[in-house]
Give the backbone structure.
Amino acid sequence: MAKAARQYVCQSCGAASNKWAGQCDTCQEWNSLVEEVATTTPKGLTAGKGRKINFVPLNGTSPESPRQKTGIAEFDRVLGGGLVAGSAILIGGDPGIGKSTLLLQAMAALANSGVNVAYISGEEAVEQVRMRARRLGLEKSNVDLAAATSVRDILSSLEGGDAPTCVVIDSIQTMFVDNLESAPGSVGQVRASAQEFIRMAKHRGISVMLVGHVTKDGQIAGPRVLEHMVDTVLYFEGERGHQFRILRAVKNRFGPGDEIGVFEMTDAGLAEVSNPSALFLPQEGGRVSGSCVFAGIEGTRPVLVEIQALVTSSPLATPRRAVVGWDSARLAMVMAVLDARGGLNLAGNDIYLNVAGGLRVHEPGADLAVAAALVSSLTGVPVPDGAVAFGEIGLSGEVRPVSQSDVRLKEAAKLGFERALSPPAGRKKEPDLAISEISAVHELVAMFGEAPSLRAVGGSEDE
């Protein structure tokens, strides 16, 4: 018979220990071990005591599950075409970024199309959700609403022939299973609650969307196994100072695992942005040094975004590096290559790099655009007018081709660009714009002329 045992579980990574310690040995997090009651199973399980499972051939046929469109095109795009019956979706994001707003809009759109949906809130009262619905103009939508935190009560309420097709749980950290003694939000409760909802989704064919809190590092709070349990993991990103929000898929068993959807926060809720490139590009005006347009790929869609760089002389012994929207370690690598292979002197300067519009760029194909923006700011010479750039930079200074070059160039030509700075290879057909092939960083530096000295960036030596 199972017996109860005491153990200390890390609330950051889920590692268990028999004794308390100030620091977790697995993730090195401080003050994260909390005492919980664990259920241990007797050892010595033998064959012949369980139920025999059925094996089927690999080449069999299974009926394809139809997708349910939510009515929000950008949301459906990230999901891979719509909701799949029996799927479990985990959505994380910073507080106030718009997770509840987006899901309430999606549930209202489904309800208006005749789908039976339910929205269960564990953080807000029913009246608070109704107030948000009235603010968004969704109060007349036929959405079943409830405020509950007991997993047992929720599962019992969803039984029956009139069970909803889609259920939102907002949020999984507020749910609790009553046969565990740990508090809601702990590793054990989050894992057990999610497991019960996922089991219900698979057994009943209900699409379940779980809202997850995030830590200060931007990761979904609770055990990392939670992301392995669900079918789809979505992150809602965005800067507080920008009105744009990015819904990014980091895992999807039913579609692309790196797709994005772009939304704009308005007074009436989240509005779809069908052409994000037009929003992330610079406004019409004079050419400015330190700015370069990067032709990137986010999932299956090409996105053009402006990368801004500012290089100034530093009065500090350790120059400052400030990066928004890109990997700071990759910026350090690109600067080192420009110094060693391009003959520049960036080490003693303050470097500021920004991806305009609040978008976060992850792919290494942005190396060439970042390098062009840095050299442009250092020399004071703008990037050639009407040009985009993409390419990966290696440590030896070579510029390597990136995937889907034709798609990037086609999007750039559609938006009126006339020139592209790209690696020599990687294209399958002739594009509709002029190509300036760059095979090494010293060729990029030569386009901007001779770089000024460190003293010349901030002023003359006489000053």
